[in-house]
TrEMBL record:
It comes from Rhodococcus maanshanensis. It is found in: Cell membrane. The keyword Ribonucleoprotein does not apply. This is Phage shock protein PspC (Stress-responsive transcriptional regulator). PANTHER family: PHAGE SHOCK PROTEIN C. It is a single-pass membrane protein. Keywords: Cell membrane, Membrane, Transmembrane, Transmembrane helix. GO terms for cellular component: plasma membrane.
Amino acid sequence: MTTQTTSRRLTRARTGNIFGGVCAGLAEYLGWKPWLVRALFVASCLLPGPQFLIYLAMWIFIPKSEI
């Protein structure tokens, strides 16, 4: 009996990206729609906190998708 395991990796999207592919990559990883992740990010920017710095760090440290 063979078992095939698929590992999910968080990567930045090459297609459907608007600014760096971070939100599209997160949406792909979570199984959500990219517009929903983008809307949540924009809404979170209205709250105080380091959201923009976290986005920049994710843009730097998350690898770009190979496909």
